[in-house]
Specification:
Number of strands: 11
Structural class: alpha+beta
Helix content: 40-55%
Strand content: 15-25%
Radius of gyration: 25 Å
Distance between the termini: 13 Å
Order of helices and strands: HHHEHEEHEEEHEEHHEEEHH
Shape: flat
Largest sheet: 8 strands, mixed
Length: 357
């Protein structure tokens, strides 16, 4: 069965590459996008399949040489290497052939909001925003904080940022949910540990060619930016508020001094929200996932707890030795350990489901 899938994938890649060589494809942005994305998905599968065929051939050649007394030792070594290579490639292909989230290769939009805990919840939301910015920087991704509402003590009531790069959503989708912190707040004089929360929603970024928004469905308001910026803040109405009238969705953007740039960024966020809503309506599973991401910011809905007294981060979706991580490095953007463990867990669940089916 796997062999049939691999053969079909190799043939389809040839078809896609032939189509991409035709000039007329480039006149249709939507078709070009779909073919390019399919090529990107098929290429690692076909390359691994080709490597598997070479490993099989090497194994057969080594087995044939075993009967030659002068080549026996060398053939045995070659046979051992070919077997190991064949086993590793077979395992890799099992993972590559697992059902993929079609949004994995997309960039992402992160929405961070303070939950329960008042000012401490807002300060924790600011910590999460910093953590994601540092992680994105370590991955070489481009980030833009398009909207941010701060408190007087430096906390964040809510923030929206775009993260652009290959495979961003595949990594950051695990961050969606309620994050919980246990620590002594700066505002607490008695030294008591408080529990506060912040929520993170992760949306796959929709491309302009995928989702048309009618101009008459939008109400666009301008207002003065807040925060740093000197006299410009007080004199220029560069911030943008976009309201999608049919759904009531509202997006604000005040990061740029240019009204036009803020409008473009606000529309990008709006497209992503509408895309997520559209996908949720067509797939019940996606709807359940998005609802479970945000929840009501209650402590019992947490996916991860940041314990300052013990200096550890505990991800409640993981078990055993993969469950706890050092607090300091995580808050400084070292998320790979957690995300690798969550990715491996998801792959294991898919393999088990595939075996049961």
């Amino acid at each position: 069965m796997m062999e049939d899938k691999l053969s079909r994938a190799a043939l389809r890649l040839q078809e896609v590459e032939l189509l991409l060589s035709q000039p007329e494809v480039y006149a249709d942005p939507a078709r070009l996008r779909d073919l390019t994305r399919e090529q990107k998905e098929l290429t690692p599968v076909v390359r691994a399949y080709e490597a598997l065929l070479r490993a099989r051939s090497a194994r057969q050649e080594a087995e044939a040489m075993l009967s030659d007394p002068e080549m026996h030792d060398l053939a045995r070594e070659e046979l051992h290497r070919a077997k190991e290579r064949q086993e590793a490639l077979t395992e890799e292909l099992h993972l590559l052939l697992l059902p993929r989230d079609p949004d994995d290769d997309r960039s992402a939009v992160l929405e961070i909001r303070a939950g329960v805990g008042g000012e401490e919840g807002a300060l924790f939301a600011a910590d999460l925003l910093r953590m994601y910015l540092l992680y994105a920087d370590s991955c070489g991704w481009q980030t833009d904080v398009v909207h941010r509402s701060d408190t007087e003590l430096g906390g964040v009531k809510e923030a929206t940022l775009t993260v652009e790069g290959p495979g961003v959503y595949a990594r950051l989708k695990f961050e969606g949910g309620t994050h919980c912190v246990k620590r002594v707040p700066e505002t607490e004089s008695g030294g008591r540990i408080h529990t506060s929360t912040a929520t993170v929603a992760v949306l796959p970024e929709a491309e302009e060619t995928e989702l048309y928004i009618a101009p008459e469905d939008l109400r666009i308001d301008t207002y003065r930016s807040g925060g740093a910026g000197g006299q410009h803040v007080n004199k220029t109405e560069s911030a943008i508020r976009v309201t999608h009238l049919p759904t009531g969705l509202v997006v604000e953007c005040q990061d740029e001094r240019s009204q036009y740039k803020n409008k473009d960024r606000a529309l990008k966020i709006l497209r992503s929200r509408l895309y997520a809503r559209q996908q949720a309506e067509s797939e019940a599973a996606r709807a359940a996932r998005r609802k479970s991401q945000v929840g009501g910011a209650e402590r019992s809905e947490r996916i991860r707890t940041y314990r300052f007294q013990e200096k550890i981060v505990v991800d409640h979706r993981l078990t055993g030795e993969h469950k706890s991580y050092p607090l300091g490095p995580v808050l400084d953007g070292d998320l790979d350990g957690i995300l690798d463990a969550l990715t491996a867990q998801q792959q294991t669940e898919k393999l088990l489901q595939q075996a049961n089916d």
